[in-house]
Structure formats: C-alpha cells, structure tokens
UniProtKB/TrEMBL annotation:
Entry-linked InterPro entries: Ester_Hydrolysis_Enzymes (IPR051532), SGNH_hydro (IPR013830), SGNH_hydro_sf (IPR036514)
Pfam families membership: Lipase_GDSL_2 (PF13472)
SGNH hydrolase-type esterase domain: residues covered: 12-173
Keyword set includes Nuclease: no
Name listed for the protein in its UniProt record: Esterase TesA
Length: 199
C-alpha cells in the first residue's frame, strides 16, 4: 500500500485480454472492475498496464518500473497466452512468471495469477502442461490463482457468441464473465491489503 496513505493500487499486467483489444474503451473487464469497486465503496485505484501482444518476457521486463512507479498493494498477472501461441518454451514462461511473482512480493504486493488454457487443436498433452505452469507456480509460490481466466467464456455453451470475429479475443458480452472469474480472489486479496496491520 502506498506509504502516503493514498488509495491502494491494483496493478494489472496483462496482454490483449486485459488491454481492451477490439473493444470500445471502458468496456473491458479491468474498466468494469473499476466500476464495481466504486459501486461497492471500495477505496482502491486500478492501473491497467496491459499491452496487446505482450509475452511473459515483456511483462517481466516492464514490471520493475511499474512496481516502482505505482507501489501496488495487489498485482494481477494475466500473461502467458501469447507465449503458447508463439510456441515459446514453457520453461521460459514458468521462469518469467515466477520472477514476476517474486518481484511483486518483494515490493510488498499480494499477487493474483490468472491461469490460461489453449484451444483443443494444440493437443491435450501441451494443454495439460500449459495449465500446470499456473497451478504449479501458485502452489510453489503460495499465491492466489484463478485456474482459468476464461472459464464460462471459452468453454461454455455460448462460446461462439462471446468472441470477436477472430475467435481469439472475447467480445464485450464476455467481459462481465471474465470479471466475475477474477472478482472473488481479487476481493480477498484487496480486503487483506486494506486490513489494519497488527503492530
């Protein structure tokens, strides 16, 4: 939390799924998060540092400056999908995410990791290995995890109606569902960050 007593910052470091790619400004899940916090009277500020097309390597390189600038209470890491789409080694994805988790914690922030999956055409073995990156890191580093950020979107009965024409990026109808996937774990972390610390 900021030392000057200002509202705690939630820093979202993600890719196009969080950067409102192909959406009207203000309609993405991060913007909806800001609205929900305000509606519920939660005193927090959201900084969306997501970049379309970003990889875990890109996020890792950008994170130190973001931590120094914003001094977040909570860091939401939504990265890894582009690594898999580009065929980058999962060992690198794991190492980059681990470094981001540890850097965030060392800066005094709580971490929420958003897990991802790949389409069926990537093969079940690769998909299982990819999902395990998130599950293993959450367990090993003891951080909060949303197992599948696009649950109910990519794997639901209305999946075809919840994506843009490219069939990769969720549309505006999907954004509230994405927020609902993130909200319970994020709210717990934020409540913990806002709780007075015992002396």
């Amino acid at each position: 939390m900021a030392a000057d007593g200002s509202a705690p910052v939630i820093l979202v470091v993600g890719d196009s799924l969080s950067a409102e790619y192909g959406l009207a400004r203000g309609s993405g899940w991060v913007a909806l998060l800001e609205q929900r916090l305000a509606q519920q009277g939660v005193r927090a500020r959201v900084v969306n540092a997501s970049v379309s097309g970003d990889t875990t390597a890109g996020g890792r390189s950008r994170l130190p400056a973001l931590l120094q600038q914003h001094r977040p209470a909570v860091v939401v890491i939504e990265l890894g999908g582009n690594d898999a789409l580009r065929g980058l080694p999962l060992t690198g994805t794991r190492d980059n995410l681990r470094a981001m988790i540890r850097a965030s914690r060392e800066a005094g922030a709580r971490v929420l990791l958003l897990g991802m999956d790949m389409p069926p055409n990537y093969g079940e073995r690769f998909r299982a290995d990819f999902r395990a990156v998130y599950a293993d890191l959450a367990r090993e580093e003891r951080v909060a995890l949303v197992p599948f950020f696009l649950a109910g979107v990519a794997d639901g009965p209305q999946a075809a109606e919840l994506f843009q024409a490219d069939r990769i990026h969720p549309n505006e109808r999907a954004q509230p569902l994405m927020l609902d996937n993130v909200w319970p774990a994020l709210r717990r972390l934020l409540d913990a960050a806002l709780a007075p610390r015992s002396r």
